[in-house]
Design a protein that fits this description.
- The chain folds into five domains: 174 residues, TIM Barrel; 157 residues, no CATH class; 145 residues, no CATH class; 148 residues, Arc Repressor Mutant, subunit A (Orthogonal Bundle); 166 residues, Immunoglobulin-like (Sandwich).
- The relative contact order is 0.08.
- It is an alpha/beta fold.
- Strands 16-15-14-5-2-1-20-17 form an eight-stranded parallel sheet. Strands 21-23-24-28-26 form a five-stranded antiparallel sheet.
C-alpha cells in the first residue's frame, strides 16, 4: 500500500482517553475509510495525568499514554490506518505540561532542587519575583485552606520512600520532594537516643552520620556554576542510594527514622508540635499555599489560569529537544503524517518555533527534497480576531478552522434581523448591553482576578526598565500596572508577534490602537506613561543602544505578548460570551457576537482568499473546544429568521416559569439574562426523543450541568473561584422544574410545539453547512460523531462516548440501499427526506451527504485542492438564499448549491419534492459546451437551459442541496 498523501483529503477528529483507546480507533478505521476520510486527527496521546479525558495535561512527551494502549496497540492502530490507505494528524502540546500530583518527573525534580535542578530552565518560572519570601522558590497554590490550618490539621505528612531513599511531603494525591540538603533535619534529631541503642562506633551509626554530613555539604540550590550543579545532581542521588541501603539492612536505624518522621508530623490539637515540620517546609524550594493566592502571587506561567498546567520554555533548545524526540520519531517512521499545534499563542516566539519545527523534524522518505521549508503538514490552533490575517511568513498550512466555523455559521443568520434580535434581548432582560464595553470589562475582570500575577510580573519588569533611565524613573509601579491593564484590556487581537526587535506593520497597528484606546479610558493624571509603554512595546529605545537595556525591553515585550492572548481567551471566550446572549450561536471561539451574520459576498471572498493563501487550512464546524456543536448552532440560527415569533414565545415561557424561580437577596434567580441563555440552549440541544423517553433524565442532567458551567464562567453571581451555593442551587432547581415532565408543566408542551419548526429548519441548515464545509477550499474536518445529528454543548458534554457501532451499521445499510437503488436515485433521496421528517433522530440523511461528498472529493482530489474557485451568479426571487460556487480544473467542474435562510422560505411547511418554493430562481453554471452535469446525490442528469442556467426547482426537487459534476459526453 502506498503511503498516505502529505496533505489530507479529509480528517476525522478522535478524542482518545481510557474509554476510547488505540484498539477502539483501529476497529473504527474501516468505517472511516469507507466514509471517505483520509486521515485520523488524533487528540494528544502522550502520557498524561491519570484519568485525563482530553490529553492536554501531558506529563511525559516521550511515552504513549498507557491508559490509551500499549505500544503493540498503537502499532496495530497505525497498521490499520496504512492498510486502508489512511494516515493521521497528531495534536501536540508545546506550550505546557501537567504538574502537581506525583507523576511529572521534571516538575518533581524542580521542586526538590529549585534552581539547581537540571529541569529548572524547562519551566517558565520567575525565580526573582517582587516578594522576597519567594526569591529562589516556586509558589505551589495547591492547598484547600490556609497553609497554617492545613499544617495543624495534620494534612501535610512527611513520608519516606525506602526504595528510592527519598523523603517527601504528601498532601492528598500530591507529592512534594524534600531537598536532600535538608535531610539532616530528619536524620539527626534525637541522635543521642539512637546512640543508646547502638555503640558510638557502630558501622550503621557511622554510615548515617556520614550520609548526613555529605548531604549537608551539597552545593546550595542557587548561586552555583554548572560544575557545582552537576556535582549536586550526582551526589544527592549517591547519598539517597546509601540511605536506602542503610535503612533496608538496619532495623534500629529504620525505627529511629520512623520515630523522627512521626514526631515531625505533629499531633493534631497541639499546634507547637508542628513547628519543626513547618521549619522543614520553609527550607524547601517551594512554598505551599492556599489555592486562592495563585491569582496574585504565583510565579510560574500557567496555561491561562490553570494552576496544574505549567508553561514550558519552548524557546530553549534543550526543552525543544527533550519534548520533540518521540514525535519526530513517529514522523520519521511515517506513523504520523502531520501535526496540530495546541495554543501556539502561548509560546514565547511562535514564528521561531514553527521554523524550528519544520527544520528539525526529520523528512519522511515519501516527501521529496523539493518540498521546501514546509515539509510537514502543520496546522495551528490560532484564533483570528476581527479582520486579522494569518502571518504568511509562517511555515505552516493554516489554522484548525475556527475562522471557517464562524464564517459558514454566519451564512445561516439573517443579517436583517440584527436590530429586532437586539430589541428582543433588551426587552427580555430589561436593560441594554453594549458588548464592546462588556468585553472590555470582562478582560479587566480577569486581569484583576485570575491573571493578576501575570500583570504583576509584567509591571515589575517594566518598572525595572523605567527605573534604569532618568527620563522614566518617576513612573511608579502602580501607575505602570494600571496603564498596562488598560492597554491589555483594549487589545484588539489575541497577541502580536514581535521578536528579535522586528516590528511588523500589523503589530504596530494593533499596539498603537490598544495604547490609544487605553489612554482614552484611563483616569491617570499623567498620560505620558502610555507614550512610554507604547515606545517599549514598539522596541523604540530612543537611541539608547545599551545591549542590556534592549534585551530587557525585548524580554518585556515577549512576555507581554504571552499575557494578552491569555487575557483575551479568558476575558472574551470564557467570560463575555457567557454574559451576552443576543444570539448565542454567534458566541463561538473565534467569533464576534457583534458581527450579526455573514453575507454571500463575504463568504465567497473568504473562500477565494483561503484558496490563494492557505489552501490546506483545516475547515471545522465542531471541535472539542467549541461552545456548541454545529447542529446546535444551526438550530439557534433559525431564531434570527423568526424574531417576532421568538419574542412572543420567550415572553410566554418567562411567565409560565416565573413561579419556578426563587428569590435570593431580593432578586429572582436565575437572572433574566441566564434564563434567556437557557431558552436558547434548549432551542439548540432539544432532543428528538419524546418527553416520555427514558433518556429524558439524562438530557435534563446535561442541561443542568451546562447551566452550572455557564453561570460560573460568566462570573456575575457565582464563579469557579467563589461558588455561590444559593444561586447555583436555585438555578439547578429552576432547570429541573422547567424540564419536569407532567401534565401541569405547560412550558414543556408549548416549547416542544415551537421547537418542531426549529428542528426542521435546523436540519436543513446543517445539511447546507456540511456540504459547504466538504467542498470549500481547505481540508474538511469532522468532529467525532458529527456525521450524524449531534446536539452537544461545551466540554465535557461534547466528549461523551460516541455510538460508533450504530454509525457503522447505518453506513453499511446506506451503501447497500444506495447500490440497490442505483437506477432510481431520486426515489432513494425521497426516502431519505421522508425518513428525516419521520425519524429525525438518527441523522441518516446527514451521513449520506457526508459519505457521498467525501468519496467524490477523495476521487477528485486535485480538483478540490488545486481547482479554481468561482462564485456562481444566482438570479430570481430567492437569489439571496442560495450559496452557489464551482470548483474547476481543466475540463473538470463541481458545482455546489447550498440554500440558506430556510425558515422564512419554508414557513410551516416541510421540505419535500411536492412543495414549490424556488419559483424563478436559477443558477448560472460554468460554461460547458458539449458537456453535461450530473447530481452526485440523485445521480440524475441536470437540465441546462440554453443560456447555461439551471432551475433550482429542478435541481433541488429531490434533495435539499446539490453537488453537480460536469462530465464529458460519451
Amino acid at each position: 500500500m502506498s503511503a498516505a498523501p502529505p496533505i489530507p483529503t479529509a480528517t476525522y477528529r478522535l478524542q482518545f482517553n481510557r474509554a476510547f483507546t488505540f484498539r477502539d480507533a483501529a476497529a473504527l478505521v474501516p468505517y472511516l475509510a469507507s466514509m471517505g476520510i483520509s486521515h485520523c486527527y488524533a487528540s494528544p496521546y502522550f502520557r498524561a495525568r491519570p484519568g485525563s479525558t482530553h490529553g492536554y495535561d501531558i506529563i511525559d512527551h516521550n511515552a504513549l499514554n498507557p491508559e490509551i494502549g500499549s505500544q503493540e496497540d498503537y502499532e496495530h492502530f497505525v497498521a490499520e490506518l496504512h492498510r486502508h490507505g489512511m494516515g493521521q494528524i497528531l495534536d501536540i502540546v508545546p506550550n505546557h505540561m501537567g504538574v502537581m500530583g506525583s507523576d511529572n518527573a521534571w516538575w518533581l525534580d524542580v521542586l526538590e532542587s529549585g534552581q539547581a535542578s537540571q529541569f529548572a530552565d524547562y519551566f517558565d518560572i520567575d525565580w526573582e519575583p517582587i516578594k522576597d519570601e519567594l526569591r529562589g522558590k516556586i509558589l505551589v497554590p495547591v492547598l484547600g485552606d490556609q497553609y497554617g490550618n492545613i499544617l495543624e490539621n495534620g494534612e501535610l505528612r512527611l513520608s519516606f520512600d525506602m526504595e528510592r531513599g527519598e523523603f517527601s511531603i504528601f498532601y492528598s494525591q500530591h507529592r512534594f520532594p524534600i531537598d536532600p540538603g535538608e535531610y539532616p533535619r530528619i536524620l539527626l534529631p534525637r541522635l543521642d537516643k539512637l546512640k543508646e541503642d547502638l555503640p558510638d562506633m557502630h558501622d550503621d551509626l557511622l554510615e548515617l552520620q556520614s550520609i548526613a554530613t555529605a548531604l549537608s555539604h551539597l552545593p546550595p540550590r542557587s548561586g552555583i556554576d554548572s560544575e557545582q550543579k552537576t556535582e549536586r545532581i550526582r551526589e544527592k542521588e549517591v547519598q539517597k542510594r546509601r540511605l536506602s541501603a542503610l535503612l533496608a539492612r538496619s532495623q534500629p536505624i529504620l525505627q529511629y527514622i520512623d520515630q523522627n518522621i512521626q514526631e515531625l508530623n505533629g499531633v493534631v490539637g497541639d499546634p507547637k508540635s508542628f513547628d519543626a515540620l513547618h521549619e522543614l517546609i520553609k527550607a524547601q524550594a517551594y512554598r505551599l499555599a492556599y489555592w486562592r493566592v495563585a491569582a496574585d502571587d504565583i510565579n510560574y506561567r500557567r496555561f491561562f489560569d490553570v494552576n496544574d498546567l505549567a508553561a514550558l520554555r519552548m524557546e530553549e533548545e534543550q526543552v525543544f529537544a527533550a519534548t520533540h524526540g518521540f514525535v519526530f520519531n513517529l514522523l520519521a517512521q511515517g506513523k504520523v503524517d502531520g501535526l496540530r499545534l495546541d495554543h501556539p499563542d502561548g509560546l514565547y516566539d511562535p514564528g521561531k518555533y514553527f521554523r524550528q519545527l519544520q527544520a528539525c523534524a526529520p523528512r519522511p522518505e515519501t516527501v521529496p527534497e523539493s518540498a521546501g521549508t514546509s515539509q510537514h503538514y502543520v496546522i495551528i490552533e490560532k484564533i483570528l480576531a476581527n479582520k486579522e490575517q494569518l502571518r504568511e511568513e509562517w511555515p505552516i498550512q493554516g489554522t484548525t478552522g475556527y475562522d471557517f466555523a464562524n464564517l459558514v455559521n454566519g451564512l445561516f443568520v439573517d443579517q436583517s434581523a440584527a436590530t429586532k434580535m437586539g430589541r428582543n434581548y433588551r426587552a427580555f432582560i430589561g436593560q441594554p448591553i453594549d458588548f464592546t464595553l462588556l468585553a472590555y470589562g470582562s478582560r479587566k475582570l480577569v486581569l484583576g482576578l485570575s491573571l493578576a500575577s501575570e500583570l504583576n510580573t509584567l509591571a515589575n519588569a517594566l518598572s525595572r526598565i523605567a527605573l534604569s533611565r532618568r527620563n522614566t524613573c518617576d513612573f511608579t509601579l502602580n501607575s505602570l500596572r494600571r496603564a498596562l491593564a488598560e492597554i491589555i484590556a483594549n487589545f484588539p487581537v489575541y497577541r502580536t508577534y514581535i521578536s528579535d526587535e522586528q516590528v511588523s506593520a500589523e503589530d504596530r497597528f494593533y499596539i498603537e490602537q490598544a495604547v490609544a484606546a487605553g489612554k482614552k479610558k484611563s483616569e491617570a493624571g499623567d498620560l505620558s506613561i502610555f507614550d512610554f509603554i507604547r515606545r517599549m512595546l514598539l522596541m523604540e529605545t530612543d537611541g539608547d543602544q545599551s545591549k542590556s537595556y534592549r534585551q530587557a525591553i525585548l524580554r518585556f515585550v515577549m512576555k507581554f505578548q504571552q499575557v494578552t492572548s491569555a487575557v483575551m481567551a479568558k476575558g472574551l471566550e470564557d467570560t463575555a460570551f457567557y454574559r451576552y446572549h443576543r444570539l448565542d450561536s454567534l458566541n463561538e471561539v473565534g467569533g464576534n457576537p457583534m458581527r450579526f451574520g455573514v453575507g454571500l459576498a463575504e463568504f465567497h471572498q473568504a473562500n477565494q482568499q483561503r484558496l490563494a493563501h492557505w489552501p490546506d487550512s483545516l475547515l471545522s464546524t465542531s471541535t472539542h473546544d467549541a461552545k456548541r456543536s454545529e447542529d446546535v448552532r444551526a438550530r439557534i440560527d433559525v431564531l434570527s429568521e423568526i424574531p417576532a415569533l421568538f419574542r412572543l414565545n420567550a415572553g410566554q415561557w418567562r411567565k409560565l416559569n416565573r413561579s419556578k424561580k426563587r428569590t435570593i437577596d431580593g432578586q429572582l434567580v436565575p437572572s433574566r439574562n441566564d434564563e434567556y441563555l437557557l431558552y436558547q440552549t434548549l432551542v439548540g440541544a432539544w432532543p428528538f426523543e419524546s418527553l416520555e423517553s427514558k433518556d429524558w433524565a439524562n438530557f435534563s442532567h446535561r442541561i443542568e450541568q451546562y447551566m452550572l458551567k455557564a453561570i460560573r464562567e460568566a462570573k456575575e453571581f457565582t464563579s469557579w473561584a467563589n461558588p455561590n451555593a444559593a444561586y447555583e442551587t436555585a438555578t439547578a432547581n429552576f432547570v429541573r422544574a422547567v424540564l419536569q415532565r407532567g401534565a401541569k408543566n405547560h412550558f414543556l408542551h408549548q416549547f416542544s410545539a415551537f421547537h418542531s419548526l426549529i428542528a426542521r429548519v435546523g436540519m436543513l441548515n446543517s445539511l447546507s453547512q456540511t456540504l459547504l464545509k466538504l467542498t470549500s477550499p481547505g481540508v474538511p474536518d469532522i468532529y467525532q460523531g458529527n456525521e450524524l445529528w449531534d446536539f452537544s454543548l461545551v466540554d465535557p458534554d461534547n466528549r461523551r462516548p460516541v455510538d460508533y457501532a450504530h454509525r457503522r451499521e447505518m453506513l453499511k445499510h446506506l451503501r447497500e440501499q444506495a447500490d440497490a437503488l442505483s437506477g432510481d436515485g431520486p426515489q432513494f433521496c425521497h426516502e431519505l427526506l421522508e425518513h428525516m421528517h419521520m425519524q429525525m433522530k438518527d441523522g441518516r440523511i446527514k451521513l449520506f451527504l457526508t459519505w457521498r461528498t467525501l468519496c467524490f472529493r477523495k476521487s477528485h482530489g486535485e480538483l478540490f485542492r488545486q481547482g479554481d474557485y468561482m462564485r456562481l451568479a444566482v438570479s430570481g426571487l430567492h437569489a439571496d438564499r442560495v450559496c452557489a460556487f464551482a470548483r474547476t480544473r481543466g475540463k473538470q467542474a463541481a458545482v455546489i448549491i447550498a440554500p440558506r435562510l430556510w425558515g422564512t422560505l419554508l414557513g410551516q411547511a416541510k421540505y419535500s419534492p411536492e412543495i414549490e418554493i424556488w419559483q424563478d430562481t436559477k443558477v448560472q453554471l460554468p460554461e460547458s459546451p458539449g458537456q453535461t452535469y450530473r447530481n452526485i446525490f440523485t445521480r440524475e442528469l441536470v437540465n441546462i437551459e440554453p443560456g447555461g442556467e439551471t432551475q433550482l426547482s429542478e435541481v433541488l426537487k429531490d434533495f435539499p442541496v446539490a453537488l453537480l459534476y460536469r462530465e464529458a459526453l460519451g
